[in-house]
Amino acid sequence: VLTVDDLIWPLFLNEAAGRSPIPSMPGVDRIGIDEAVREAERAARLGIPAIAVFPNVDSALRDAEGSECQNRRNLVCRAVRAIKAAVPEIGVVTDVALD
């Protein structure tokens, strides 16, 4: 049995505000932190218990050690702080996307 409690809403993050299409995934957008907060609020209203954030990290910030994941001001950290401030009850699954 599959219920709303089993769902995780994926969000594809971008540094830019608003929305931009992902060409390889028709109908799916990368969104800025402002939009991610709104989507997390929407997920919570629908009873979805968690979201998963997948950042689009600039290739200049990627290295063999994944150093950007230690940056407290990286896209994922800023997004999670904003989402949890607005929707503290929602679970957030993260990916550093530095591959």
- The biggest beta sheet, please? 5 strands, mixed
Number of helices: 2
The oligomeric state of the chains shown is: single chain
In spatial order, strands of the major sheet run 2-3-1-4-5
Query: Which sequence of SSEs, written as H and E, runs from N to C?
Result: EEEHEHE
Instruction: Report low-confidence residues grouped into runs of 5 or more.
Output: none
Structure in words:
Helix content is 25%, strand content 22%. It is of the alpha/beta class and 99 residues long. It has a five-stranded mixed beta sheet with strand order 2-3-1-4-5, with helices on one face. α1 packs across α2. The longest helix has 13 residues.
List the helices and strands and how they pair.
Layout (H helix, E strand, L loop, with lengths): L7 E6 L5 E3 L7 E3 L1 H13 L4 E6 L19 H12 L4 E4 L5
Parallel strand pairs: 1-3, 1-4, 4-5
Antiparallel strand pairs: 2-3
Helix pairs in contact: 1-2
Summed up:
The chain is 25% helix and 22% strand.
Main features:
about 100 residues, alpha/beta, 5-stranded mixed beta sheet, 2 helices, about 25% helix
